[in-house]
Design goal:
By secondary structure, the protein is an alpha+beta fold. About 15% of the residues lie in helices and about 30% in strands. It is built from 10 helices and 33 strands. Strands 1, 8, 9, 10, 11, 13, 15, 16 and 20 form a 9-stranded mixed β-sheet that branches. Strand 5 and strand 6 form a beta hairpin. The termini are far apart. About 50% of the residues are buried. The N terminus is likely disordered.
Length: about 675
């Protein structure tokens, strides 16, 4: 059980949509060791220095041996949500949020927290080198003097300010700024990580929500590389009597009104605190792991999950911060809470076509250029969810390439590579197979969907504002269609998205954005890499996993078996040769629905069989044979409304023709 947890915090429910900004110099946060989380209770250590104003109070540890410089935040006596509510966990006692300074030069992690942390680098505790002192009545400064060998591997002075700024509720922010001064004789290469252990009232597992663009709350671990959104929102979703009690906003790339101006981090992670707290720097997120709900395995006391946010500046050696001798580097981030604000009025409809987005992937020109990569980085999902395939901005393929660049390269491949082919099963792109009509249609829809995502997340275009005929959730609807198997619906949605992408103002851009030069078409073709495989974008339907869906009845189809192989298992009616596979799923395969299959127009002898179940557990239903000389009267079967049914045609070299009907 954690000390100062749910039973010890008095909560006064208050429905505020946003409350206060806290500015904090951000550092690097890593995933934790399960063993550490099981043996170390979540407790504070009794911060001895308190500062702030009537809206927020900050607490900074100044006792050597207790983690000098660690901090936490609560609401003050005049806060509209009530006094003494946690913003960071601890009820005024620091001990669960901490910063790490990584030296890439000496492979050292300098950690505010006490005890050993999981890391590939050597741990050095900052506690014995720290001195905390008041900054008037509103803040606390902690200074760590690292004298260099033989005492410490590096010669650095680290200065941390935790301070409350502002004189009214609307203007107050809580700032944490970190300055690293190189007092040595050679250039230092550092990274900075902050681990913030949020708690809203008694909910230790609040949700995470990108705030600009406004996205749905996240309850699973997530990662945002090179984030361009202004801020994120932390909000309670359970445990408290009437959530949301209040919302906490954390700065990322803005807003510009916050002072000191936030320094955008290279990486932001939303993590499970019991795992992340056991690490010094690196953390690997698990996007499938729920961390903000009662049924999550990420818990430490209150039952509603346990979440933390990690900031990274210089999150790897390639992005390390270089500080020459005698120079210094400063990062800053903030938290703040504000009263409810009305939603902003819809802006003008500004859009760009698919060709624009996919010919402006990136830019090295000066100015804030509108590019595909910026749209990917601003996407709420942290990547490109295209319904039938996702291009995530998480590290993949053991590749050191920036993840958002990988997604950009793959997006280019969907547009600039041939739409008529698909990658082979291993996804190595060394082989290509002719794509089915559905695959070709999906790729064309993907190009328009990529443009629609860019238009909505980066340019702020609202489909319903652009034209009353466009639904506000047009992008979400397009993802559903792209993930389905209805060819007609895919073609129709492609046309609708194209109309949206060409519906807006094209001679202007939203404030702060400029248009830079397009890439050469030849260069784009060489850059692009098609990410599809037969599973996401099927080629010929010659196996169970690549079966072509039948979405309407009556259905007619043909196939030239010279392009097919014999992969499907044989039926009791015999071995027929190359396989052509279709499938029926509910609701077309409705309960007790009767079907008749006719293959009499085929110009070769054909064996047809019907199976039900899954590809790794098929059950035979019926089979039969036909030939041009002795045509069969037809094969019949009934569906049960639950299973998937597979129809397999086998034959030698020639054309199979199949008709499927139902009363």
């Amino acid at each position: 059980m954690k000390k100062n947890s749910a039973s010890e915090i008095s909560v006064k429910p208050c429905r505020l949509s946003c409350i206060g900004w806290m500015t904090v110099a951000c550092g690097i946060i890593v995933s934790g060791a399960a063993a550490w989380a099981q043996t170390s209770p979540k407790v504070g250590r009794g911060g001895t220095l308190e500062a702030g104003n009537s809206f927020y109070r900050v607490f900074v540890e100044d006792a050597v041996g207790s983690g000098v410089g660690q901090y936490t935040v609560t609401t003050g006596p005049a806060h509209p949500a009530g006094p003494g509510l946690n913003v960071l966990f601890g009820s005024g006692s620091p001990g669960t949020s901490f910063n790490t300074i990584r030296s890439y030069l000496t492979a050292t992690d300098y950690i505010q927290d006490l005890g050993s942390k999981s890391s590939s680098y050597t741990n050095v505790t900052l506690d014995p080198f720290g001195v905390a002192q008041m900054l008037g009545t509103t803040g606390v400064r902690t200074t760590y003097d690292l004298s260099g060998p033989p005492i410490t591997p590096d010669r650095l002075t680290i200065i941390q300010d935790v301070r409350v700024n502002g004189d009214s509720f609307e203007t107050t922010t809580v700032e944490v700024t970190t300055t690293i001064r190189n007092t040595g004789f050679i250039s230092a290469r550092v990274g900075i990580r902050y681990l913030w252990d949020f708690q809203v009232g008694t909910d230790d597992g609040p949700t995470f929500q990108v705030n600009k663009p406004i996205c749905s709350p996240v309850i699973t671990e997530a990662q945002f590389n090179g984030p361009t959104f202004d801020a994120y929102r932390i909000e309670d979703n359970d445990v408290n009597p009437a959530p949301p009690t209040f919302s906490i906003f954390g700065t990322v790339a803005g807003p510009a009104s916050v002072e000191p101006l936030p320094v955008p981090p290279d990486l932001v992670q939303y993590t499970c605190w019991p795992s992340a707290v056991g690490t010094a720097f690196e953390y690997t997120v698990d996007p499938a792991r729920p961390i903000a709900t009662a049924d999550s395995n990420c818990q430490s006391g209150t039952g509603g999950g346990d979440t933390a946010v990690l900031y990274y500046w210089g999150n790897n050696a390639a992005k390390s911060i270089n500080i020459p001798p005698g120079q210094e580097y400063t990062v800053s981030a903030s938290l703040f809470l504000t009263p409810p604000q009305p939603p902003p009025p819809p802006g003008p409809c500004v859009t760009r076509s698919a060709r624009f987005w996919l010919s402006h992937p990136d830019s090295t020109e000066a100015g804030n250029c509108v590019t595909l990569r910026k749209a990917i980085q601003a996407s709420c999902e942290g990547g490109l969810n295209l319904g039938f395939i996702s291009l995530p901005t998480l590290p993949r393929y053991n590749n050191v390439t920036e993840p958002s660049e990988l997604a950009m390269i793959e997006a280019l491949g969907l547009y600039w590579r041939s739409t008529k082919v698909t990658g082979e099963g291993g996804g190595t792109q060394n082989q290509k197979l002719r794509g089915a009509k559905l695959c070709q249609a999906r790729k064309k829809l993907a190009a328009e969907l990529i443009a629609a995502i860019g238009n909505t997340v980066l340019l702020g275009a609202d489909p319903a504002v652009c034209n009353a005929n466009f639904p506000a959730d047009l992008v979400d609807q397009a993802r559903i269609v792209a993930g389905g198997e209805d060819l007609a619906a895919t073609l129709a949605m492609t046309k609708l998205l194209r109309l949206f992408n060409n519906s807006g103002v094209t001679n202007s851009l939203p404030d702060g954005w400029v248009e830079c030069s397009a890439f050469d078409t030849k260069a784009l073709r060489s850059i692009g890499r098609d990410p599809t495989t037969q599973l996401s974008c099927p080629g010929i339907n010659d196996s169970c996993s690549n079966a072509l869906a039948i979405t309407s009845i009556p259905f007619k189809a043909g196939a030239n078996t010279t392009r097919y192989t014999a992969q499907f298992q044989d039926s009791v009616c015999g071995t027929g040769g190359a396989d052509v596979v279709w499938k029926l799923t509910p609701p077309v395969a409705a309960p007790n629905r009767h079907f008749t299959l006719d293959a009499s127009d085929s110009n070769i002898a054909t064996i047809f069989s019907v199976w039900k179940g899954t590809c790794d557990g098929l059950v035979p239903v019926n089979c039969g044979s036909t030939s041009p000389s002795f045509p069969s009267p037809g094969l019949t079967f009934r569906t049960d409304g639950t299973n998937t049914y597979y129809i397999v045609g086998e034959g030698g070299a020639g054309k199979i023709k199949m008709k499927l009907s139902s009363p």
